[in-house]
Amino acid sequence: MKNFSFMRLSLWVYLAIFFAYLLGPLVIMSATAFNSPSFPRMTPWECLTFEWFSALFRDERILNGIWNSILVGAGTVVLSVAMGLAGALMLTQIWPKLRATYYTIIIAPILIPGVVLGISTLVFWDRINRMLGLGADSFLSNGLFLTIIGQSTFIASYCMLVLVARLQRYDIALTEAALDLGATHAQAFRKVLLPFMRPAIASAAVLAFLASFENYNTTTFTFGEYPTLTIELAQKVRYGITPAISALAFIIVVLTVFAALFNEASIRRKQLVAEARKKATVEELESGKLRLPGFLSSNAAAVALVVVACATVAVVGTASVYSPQQCIANVQEQKRLETEERIKELRRQRELRRQQQEEQGEAAPAQTAPATGSTGNNSGFGGVFAPGSLSGGSEAEPETEQEPQGNNSGFGNVFDPNALSGDGGESGSGN
Amino acid sequence: MSAGVGVDLENLWIRFGDFVAVRDANVNINGGDFFSFLGPSGCGKTTILRAVSGFLEPSDGRVLIGGNDMKGIGPNKRPTALIFQNLALFPLMKVWENITFSMEIKGASVRERRKRADELLDMIALPGQGDKLPSELSGGQRQRVAIARALCAEPDVLLLDEPLSALDLKLRQHMRTELREIQQRVGITFIYITHDQGEALTMSDSIAVMKAGVIDQIGNGKTIYNDPSTAFAASFVGENNVFRGKIKRIMGEEALIQTNRSGELVARISTANQGKMKEGDAAMMFIRPEAFALAPKGAKGTHFVTAKVNNEEFEGNVFNIFMEGDGGKELKVSIPNLGQSFEDHTGQNITLEYETKNAVIVPAGELAAE
Amino acid sequence: MPSFLKEFFKRNGTGMGSLMLGLVLFWTVGLIILPQLSMLDFSFRPNLPPPEIGGPKDVYTLENYKYLIYGPEGGSQDYNAVDLKVFFRTLVAAVCVTVFNLILCYPIAYYLAQTKGNHIRIFALMLIIPYWINEILRAFALRIIFGETGVLNNMLVGLGVFDTPFDFIRNDIALYAGLGYAYILLMIFPIYNVIESLDRNQIEAARDMGASWPMIHRRVVIPYAKPGISSGCTMVFMLSAGALAAPQILGGPSSLWFTQLIYQQFNDNSDWPQGAAYAVVLLVTCILLVLAVMRLFKVNMGDIGK
Ligand SMILES: Nc1ncnc2c1ncn2[C@@H]1O[C@H](COP(=O)(O)OP(=O)(O)OP(=O)(O)O)[C@@H](O)[C@H]1O
Ligand SMILES: [Mg+2]
């Protein structure tokens, strides 16, 4: 018995750790969207702000990226659901000898790294383009076309798997019955097979859209003139991050939770209604007096849905009247003081060093060089910059004008090895 | 209604790869007939039906409907409607939508369709059930909906693939009469498939008995039952007792057969084999259980059979006696229960007699599996 | 027309049949087979400016593959140590991530599959939600946590575990955590699917006979779940070896992922054939590795994607 409860306990601990790993990052990231520092961070908490949301909606590139993602997503959904359905239908009636080979071919794109798919798509259509003698601006080298084609290559495989699962439960005699009753093949498809497949097609379409929306590896080679949201985000994340990205993430999280809760609530409601139906007497059914359970009764998901909706409304309401100006000003003032302190300290140190230098003569240059070198790595999460992309620094500079707060210290710190560990991250991104 | 449209199969062959599913079938089905294909599982009945309805192209030979060759005409263009072995009702459509699917295809309005559905629902005795889903109906009701759906297409030929096999015995018997009534009412040709000889006999105008892709015999129920042309037909349709032997002498329509166990017996040569059998041919003689009568003990002659009784049972309408028979098969005798008294014969030898016209001789051949 | 094609069109109608066949051919040939072949072909060609393509200099060469092994011609080293190191490191790390993921996910998958109740659906939802959120954002979230001034460092320093923040990114811990994080669902789902169909009675019977939990898993559950496990492992391995976003965002400055090299060849050096050659090497190695492991554990290709 003791052993048993110990097992239960360790199970729950394990589950807790697992879900903390899974959900913790999202929660923390969401929280950073409401903190005022210009580098996304949760601690220390400075001021509650909604500014990052407006910054997000002012960001042309993000908005454009969303639009491109929707275009690509729509194209990918249509193409990959169509190909997935055709592929699944073919799988059910292909020559038995070819079946295994065929299955391997259509399942392979799931296993081929996205990078490889992107490259092969790019290379292949470029060649076709050249073979047809078309220019660099032709339809075939259009980023939208290439991205849709590239993504559909593997998303169609996912769709195929979803569709085949349902198709296996389809009785081919239904199509034959429709044909026998005078329907054309197209009519039999539309009126009998398609309605049967509709739930699976809907799942496949949602899956395809989500997969397309978040795809990076393939798209990064094919996007051309049409950077999708993911591409834009990757650019931003690599070259200086701001809480505006957290704000976007928060919005997506909330939308996702909404969708999930809504789905869950409607499933639960269907269950409840079915139960009520089953319990109801014939009389109740016939007289139409059957009282169906309310939307909220014994439906936790529905309650949660309403709560989340209310919370959202409340937050949006607060956001429109709330102004963190005072708080930010306070923090800024405090920071300015700190910075001044530090600059003073720095000056003193420099003074000190000059004195030493004067004393030691040649030792100085050797000392400063490594200090500058390490700055490149540590400040601003230099870690992400691939060695080739040293543009990080120059990209970051223009932002200095937009975000004036908290960067006074930047230049001072660069020369101070001790400061790197403390404020390095923040000042780097501010720069 | 018209006299109906006939269906003809001419030298029909259907092969799947090397496997021959139907071998040289020749059948003429008269318009307005209730025609049955009767045969054991896997003998190619469904295959024939699919060739008639157009899902299969014949490998050889022709299918004619109303005298027209159907080659190259798809199932949706043929004047046939098929009721599938598993019914194949559209699960997501309501009953009335199912029934009037063929009208939807032709672009009929919802009002017309509703009206026609109501008529058909009345006909199949399911008034007011049109708004249910097929899954909410009982097996027999679903059955009738499938029939209504097929009839709504106004086919010239209705094809039914063992439609009653999924039902329980009571319902099956009820549906038999109902189907027959419907057929008589609408007057179109029904082609019915079954492996149940009772079904075939009760409903059909004509029956084709099939064995492993070959049509053994075609005829009306009485002919098939009383005058089988092959050993298979004789043993497959109804219960029968077989006596193996050799033809000893042919005497016009009758013949004397030297049986392996029961001495020399006289029987009628089946009509289809008249003039085709010679003395010395291996032959089989069949006598139905109910064609025997008890004879005085020790009676001898060419229409008496003597054997030892293994077992007896009382079935209500008949009294069954099981005796040692030919080739390991028991010889079964059914004496109608007319209120007479039965003594127990178990373990004794008894003698039976039959009338020559009730015993048929066919060439020796394969028997139907039990 | 061959008989099976005739049969096919008879079954599906000429119009629908052609549409279906067209889509399938477009997908399999136009999107899967030809592009891969074309990439393969391309990887054997020199990097030429567009006007010279198809010209006399456009001949097959092994240059691009040689480059991966020997480095630039006349280079100072005998071998292309940098790229080769990245290549092997990527493979080893991908294997580690796969193993880590398997160990992490197997208990969860087992628990989800063998427990009944409404809370399981909630758990499943919680599992799926992170995957509706952009891959980049997931990596970004981890970067916020693992950053030098990130939550984790603040916490650890605050608790006194470290005096100075620990550089999780430079030490690649963030990267491994991020890769593991990215593919949890892909590991859980196949395993879950298989274990769900395992009859509970089998487990109970084994327990009845006195088998311990580790024993039950080793002898009953794991053999049964093998197709799911191999399917999950294959996907996680292939995807993490081919990952690009997570290494770009979470990788340390001194340690590259092989896909980043490919990316550089394409975007920074504009050397497409070289990039294609690297991509071919990555693809072929991964496939061979997966096939070898599948051989070893006796799993079929048909099990993948179930
Ligand atoms: N598409 C096919 N490919 C290959 N062989 C087939 C095909 N369809 C049927 N057969 C074979 O043809 C034979 C006849 O099949 P059919 O379906 O006509 O039998 P049936 O008489 O309807 O049997 P049942 O009473 O069991 O329905 C069977 O041996 C079957 O295996
Ligand atoms: Mg059949």
TrEMBL record, chain A:
Record region (Disordered): 348-431
Low complexity bias (residue ranges): 362-378
Keyword terms of this UniProt record: Cell membrane, Membrane, Transmembrane, Transmembrane helix, Transport
Positions with biased composition (Basic and acidic residues): 348-357
Entry-linked InterPro entries: Bact_Polyamine_Transport (IPR051789), MetI-like (IPR000515), MetI-like_sf (IPR035906)
Biased composition annotated in UniProt, kind: Gly residues: 422-431
Pfam name, any one: BPD_transp_1
Domain ABC transmembrane type-1: 66-263
Transport among keywords: yes
Keyword Membrane among record annotations: yes
PROSITE patterns: ABC_TM1
Top-level lineage group: Bacteria
Subcellular compartments: Cell membrane
Transmembrane segments: 12-34, 66-91, 103-125, 145-165, 241-262, 300-322
Protein family according to the UniProt entry: Belongs to the binding-protein-dependent transport system permease family. CysTW subfamily.
PANTHER family: PUTRESCINE TRANSPORT SYSTEM PERMEASE PROTEIN POTI
Protein's name according to its UniProt entry: ABC transporter permease
Organism of derivation: Leisingera daeponensis
Species classification: Bacteria, Pseudomonadati, Pseudomonadota, Alphaproteobacteria, Rhodobacterales
Automatic annotation (TrEMBL), chain B:
Highest taxon listed in the record's lineage: Bacteria
InterPro entries: AAA+_ATPase, ABC_SmlMolc_Importer, ABC_transporter-like_ATP-bd, ABC_transporter-like_CS, Mo/tungstate-bd_C_term_dom, P-loop_NTPase, Transp-assoc_OB_typ2
Domain spans labelled ABC transporter: 7-237
Pfam families documented for this protein: ABC_tran, TOBE_2
Keywords: ATP-binding, Nucleotide-binding, Transport
GO molecular function, one term: ATP binding
SUPFAM superfamilies, sorted: MOP-like, P-loop containing nucleoside triphosphate hydrolases
Name by which UniProt lists this protein: ABC transporter ATP-binding protein
Organism encoding this protein: Leisingera daeponensis
Organism classification: Bacteria, Pseudomonadati, Pseudomonadota, Alphaproteobacteria, Rhodobacterales
UniProtKB/TrEMBL annotation, chain C:
Transmembrane regions listed in the UniProt entry: 21-40, 86-110, 122-146, 173-195, 228-250, 276-297
PANTHER family with a match to the protein in the record: INNER MEMBRANE ABC TRANSPORTER PERMEASE PROTEIN YDCU-RELATED, INNER MEMBRANE ABC TRANSPORTER PERMEASE PROTEIN YDCU-RELATED-RELATED
Family label: Belongs to the binding-protein-dependent transport system permease family. CysTW subfamily.
Keywords assigned by UniProt, alphabetized: Cell membrane, Membrane, Transmembrane, Transmembrane helix, Transport
PROSITE patterns reported for this sequence: ABC_TM1
Cell compartment(s), UniProt: Cell membrane
Keyword presence, Transport: yes
Coiled coil: none
Name of the protein: ABC transporter permease
